[in-house]
């Protein structure tokens, strides 16, 4: 392992924690996608695979704010939870678009990086908790309709078998094409 001076170690930690915070923010976003695409979408479970894929693709193109707006169209959200989602969207957008600009001086100093490290750890924890909250929401909905973890795992296993079979055939065909 390379020997880094304190400032270099601290910079590395700052950027690593930024990555972790963005990871958790993206997990939160993807949980929102699942809620909007499937959990509260009556059309989802009545649809075939291609339509379900289309619903997910459409939701993946939406911003986090658009996902929250779509969710509000689909279901009545308690005011306190709506406020929580609005705050999460603001934090996510600030983290993704303005964090380093707003901390352009802080990143240059030891004390500034200490502040950023604490702040990024808090953001990472915040988005991790928000993601867990979203996951709990959609798992409860899925369990109510009989889509338990066991059912999902069995379904995924079947999909993986089909994909493996498809790719193995495709790979063999590609090799034959190369002569």
Q: Which features does this protein show?
A:
0% strand, single chain, mainly alpha, 7 helices, 80% helix, 2 domains, 179 residues
Structural class: mainly alpha
Uncertain parts:
173-179
Measured between the Cα atoms of the first and last residue, the distance is: 45 Å
Number of strands: 0
State the order of secondary-structure elements, H for helix, E for strand.
HHHHHHH
> What number of structural domains do the residues give?
2
Overall average residue pLDDT: 87
- Content of β-strand: under 5%
- The 3D shape can be described as globular
- Amount of helix: over 70%
Number of DSSP helical runs = 7
Largest sheet: none
Radius of gyration: 21 Å
Task: Please provide a written account of the structure.
With 179 residues, the chain is mainly α. It folds into 2 domains: 142 residues, no CATH class; 32 residues. It has 7 helices and no strands. Helix 1 crosses helix 2 and helix 1 packs parallel to helix 3. It is globular and about 55 Å long. The C terminus is likely disordered.
Short description:
This protein has 179 residues and is an all-alpha fold. The chain folds into 2 domains: 6-147, no CATH class; 148-179.
Indicate the topology.
Elements: H1 6-39, H2 49-60, H3 64-74, H4 79-97, H5 99-102, H6 110-144, H7 149-177
Helix pairs in contact: 1-2, 1-3, 1-6, 3-4
């Amino acid at each position: 392992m390379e020997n880094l001076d304190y400032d270099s170690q601290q910079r590395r930690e700052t950027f690593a924690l930024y990555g972790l915070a963005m990871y958790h923010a993206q997990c939160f976003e993807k949980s929102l996608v699942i809620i909007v695409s499937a959990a509260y979408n009556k059309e989802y479970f009545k649809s075939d695979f291609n339509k379900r894929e289309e619903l997910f693709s459409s939701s993946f193109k939406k911003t986090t704010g658009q996902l929250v707006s779509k969710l509000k169209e689909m279901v009545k959200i308690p005011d306190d939870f709506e406020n929580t989602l609005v705050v999460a969207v603001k934090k996510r957008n600030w983290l993704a678009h303005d964090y380093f600009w707003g901390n352009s001086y802080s990143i240059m100093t030891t004390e500034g990086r200490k502040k950023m490290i604490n702040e990024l750890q808090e953001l990472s924890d915040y988005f991790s908790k928000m993601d867990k909250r979203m996951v709990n929401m959609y798992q409860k909905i899925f369990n109510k309709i009989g889509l338990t973890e066991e059912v999902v795992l069995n379904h995924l296993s079947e999909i993986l078998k089909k994909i493996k079979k498809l790719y193995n055939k495709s790979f063999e065909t590609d090799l034959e094409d190369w002569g």
